[in-house]
Design brief:
Family: Belongs to the major facilitator superfamily. Sugar transporter (TC 2.A.1.1) family.
GO cellular component, one term: membrane
Number of helices: 25
Keywords: Membrane, Transmembrane, Transmembrane helix, Transport
Largest sheet: none
GO molecular function, one term: transmembrane transporter activity
Distance between the termini: 16 Å
Main location: membrane
Radius of gyration: 23 Å
């Protein structure tokens, strides 16, 4: 039994599109989809800007606050307090998404983010600054759950990977923008206040634009708001496919209601297939962080200075180049994720990441020789790292997590997985400088390289390929993985699929 043989008639499946190739949807021929994706992806821009801006702002915060300059702990706390807020925001964001919808969750995130930007810009001391970072984190945490799910639920399956990856492009674009703004304000009084304060601008823009956008049609179906859902879907699909999509989602909605609310809100860990999905999704999110990406993005100017380039302006300029490569690599990932596939792309990415981290480790280990060559080699290692990471491990975890969970659990499971991402992010950000000071920068990157090897094995063993699959096909995939060796269950699964 295979997925394609039992789901060939599901709209958006590979079999369906083989029969009706004229019903394929192209993103760039449908400005409505592009517009929805662009506005929702501003959440990714907020995520990316906050990730990148603190790396440059920290250089000037240390100049203004002596306590910060003399304390690695305070530096790490200023960086990581946003991550602590994001953990809470991501955990709450899953519930907010399921209870109130993707649209309201985004608006709530924008309000919180704007408040945080104002508090940071006006902070009279490091401790008020830390409070502002906490507010920023809450908003970013909610947005990190909401944007990928909102985009995925609006996307036709054949272009879902590329559209969800657009959110990742906005993350990397936000990081690049943050470095540009950091450079622009280097000679302006109140340097870091401007750097952090302008982060509220995208949140205000998204707030007003989201008021004009619809709710996710899948969430509307779950809430029995069928007419509103059909209105949204009619702007995405032509009439022939629209009819098939509506019939499918109506059947799904009726099936879910027949199962009862007690099943919908049951403990997800009682389901073997959902446990497998969470293992793959949350594992990818954890390894995305533990393979060092936000170590590079938060501390890239500091790493460049460690490599021997001591000028703040030069450190920011070299970091800008790294951020530009990150954005460019994500553009490549948008193309590859629906062509090469999620799993292959992640494995290729991790192979390059391992090699790059070894180069970084060797560069710093040999830095004591006094040769400037190793400083430049470290910068090259950073660039290679970004070049390999961004198309694969930058895009794949968020895309996979937007599509591997059943409809009624998507917000909750997405929130759990995003929380894992932010917890992992916090651990890395809070420990990197201290670990580097204790064992050396070179050995620290070597440790991250070893973790990347474990990540490669994890993806190879636990992460299936979901390229081009509909949400229903993905759900069947996990059921086959969980129960495929049980002939009686497989037969029931086949019968249920044929009936639907």
């Amino acid at each position: 039994m295979t997925i394609t043989t039992i789901t060939h008639s599901i709209p958006g499946s590979s079999g369906y599109l083989d029969i009706y190739p004229e019903r394929k949807v192209s993103a760039f021929k449908n400005p409505y989809i592009v517009g929805l994706t662009a506005v929702a992806s501003i959440g990714g821009l907020l995520f990316g800007y906050d990730t990148g801006v603190i790396s440059g702002a920290l250089l000037y915060i240390k100049d203004d606050f002596e306590a910060v300059r003399h304390s690695n702990f305070l530096q790490e706390t200023i960086v990581s307090m946003a991550l602590a807020g994001a953990i809470v925001g991501a955990a709450a964001g899953g519930w907010i998404n399921d209870a109130y919808g993707r649209k309201k969750a985004t608006v709530i995130a924008d309000v919180i983010f704007t408040l945080g930007a104002i508090v940071m810009a006006a902070a009279p001391d490091p401790y008020v600054l830390i409070l502002g970072r906490l507010f920023i984190g809450l908003g970013v945490g909610i947005a990190s759950v909401t944007a990928p799910v909102y985009i995925a639920e609006l996307s036709p399956s054949e272009i879902r990977g590329a559209l969800v990856s657009t959110n990742v492009l906005m993350i990397t674009g936000g990081q690049f923008l943050s470095y540009l703004i950091n450079l622009a304000f280097t000679q302006v009084p109140g340097t870091w206040r401007w750097m952090l304060g302008v982060s509220g601008v995208p949140a205000v823009i998204q707030f007003f634009l989201m008021l004009l956008l619809p709710e996710s049609p899948r969430w509307l179906f779950i809430k029995n708001r069928k007419e509103e859902a059909i209105t949204v879907l009619s702007k995405i699909y032509d009439f022939a496919r629209l009819e098939d999509e509506v019939n499918l989602r109506t059947t799904q909605s009726e099936r879910d209601h027949q199962r009862g609310d007690n099943i919908r809100y049951r403990d997800v860990f009682k389901s073997k297939e959902i446990r497998l999905a969470l293992l793959a999704g949350a594992g990818l999110q954890a390894f995305q962080q533990f393979t060092g990406i936000n170590t590079v993005m938060y501390y890239s100017p500091t790493i460049v200075q460690m490599a021997g380039f001591h000028s703040n302006e030069l450190a920011l300029l070299l970091s800008l180049i790294v951020a530009a490569m990150n954005a460019a690599g994500t553009v490549l990932g948008i193309y590859l994720i629906d062509h090469a596939g999620r799993r292959k792309l992640a494995l290729f990415s991790l192979g390059g990441v391992i090699a790059s981290l070894i180069i970084l480790a060797l560069s710093f280990i040999n830095q004591s020789s006094g040769s400037g060559l190793y400083g430049w080699l470290a910068v090259i290692g950073l660039a290679l790292y970004i070049g390999f990471f961004s198309p694969g491990m930058g895009t794949v975890p968020w895309t996979v997590n937007s599509e591997v969970y059943p409809e009624e659990y998507r917000g909750t499971c997405g929130g759990m997985s995003a929380t894992v991402n932010w917890v992992s992010n916090l651990i890395v950000a809070q420990s990197f400088l201290s670990v580097a000071a204790a064992v050396g920068t070179g050995p620290t990157f070597l440790i991250i390289a070893i973790i990347a090897v474990f990540a490669f094995v994890f993806v190879f063993v636990y992460v299936p390929e979901t390229k081009g699959l509909t949400f229903d096909e993905v759900e069947l995939l996990w059921k086959q993985r969980a129960w495929g060796n049980n002939p009686e269950y497989a037969q029931n699964l086949l019968q249920n699929a044929n009936h639907s």
